[in-house]
Amino acid sequence: xxxxxxxxxxxxxxxxxxxxxxxxxxxxxxxxxxxxxxxxxxxxxxxxxxxxxxxxxxxxxxxxxxxxxxxxxxxxxxxxxxxxxxxxxxxxxxxxxxxxxxxxxxxxxxxxxxxxxxxxxxxxxxxxxxxxxxxxxxxxxxxxxxxxxxxxxxxxxxxxxxxxxxxxxxxxxxxxxxxxxxxxxxxxxxxxxxxxxxxxxxxxxxxxxxxxxxxxxxxxxxxxxxxxxxxxxxxxxxxxxxxxxxxxxxxxxxxxxxxxx
Amino acid sequence: xxxxxxxxxxxxxxxxxxxxxxxxxxxxxxxxxxxxxxxxxxxxxxxxxxxxxxxxxxxxxxxxxxxxxxxxxxxxxxxxxxxxxxxxxxxxxxxxxxxxxxxxxxxxxxxxxxxxx
Lengths: 261, 117
Hints:
The complex is a heterodimer of chains A (261) and B (117).
Chain A: H1 2-24, H2 31-61, H3 63-88, H4 91-124, H5 130-163, H6 166-189, H7 211-220, H8 228-260
Chain B: H1 2-15, E1 23-30, E2 33-35, E3 38-42, E4 47-53, E5 59-63, E6 68-72, E7 77-82, E8 88-94, E9 102-108
Parallel strand pairs in B: 1-4, 3-9
Antiparallel strand pairs in B: 1-2, 4-7, 5-6, 5-8, 8-9
């Protein structure tokens, strides 16, 4: 039970902590807003769990997978929007807008990832001798996740100071894309979309179930056996926002120069 | 109008796979054990795996090699589609009880390999 709890914590809670580390390194969130977002996420997760049965029955039994994929899609959209915020909003509004988007991201990822963990706790907490193992496992998992979140916070903060807003946003974009592309499996497994067999197998290089496998899966969406659809979406989902941001920035600069002259 | 119906046909082709008949395989979870623990399916075909959870606790069907992960609530059943797969063995576990809830999907080349061991 102890090892299970640690593994589940690493798989389901690590993306939440990674996002927190990456966000706090580039968006200035007040303590009150940050804690408020965490509680809002937890409340939404509890509400989500109560609706899981209803959702699961919707769309011929595919409702839960569609909802979870949509949550990952909204996370990706908000991350893309976060990257465009310096170009879309005035310097007066940008801090407030970024804070709202960061809150939205925190709530969405807690619902998308935390639900599974809460289900596990809810189902097994009443079992004999489970509480102690689960608490120790949670503490161990929490320690690992917090360490990585702090490391990523300092890394993102350093990137932000050295290269500006773009570089840490790129790290966040790769993370969100990885999460979204991995979530495609949810739609494939209930046959909402069809996908072919894996196009390669790098299990020999980095095992999906190894420590590096878990970490790379969370950070960049690594999968040892990716499918054509996953590969076909991964690169465009990263490259298109970068190109769009570059052109938008270029047009905005030219317009600004034209107005100055 | 022709263009619109062409797009509709394309959409239907993408999303209609669920309408096509696929072979179904039943898997039962009882006392944190999968029955049967080995399922043989044909290579290169998509199949539907129906999982019944007869335990009082939820379980999560998890397989890295199959790229599948689904929570099965207590006393409920759920389904997932797997394949088309290359011949070989693909392990799966119950993520909440990985020491006991374990099994393997064996993918064989022979046609109609629907026998369950």
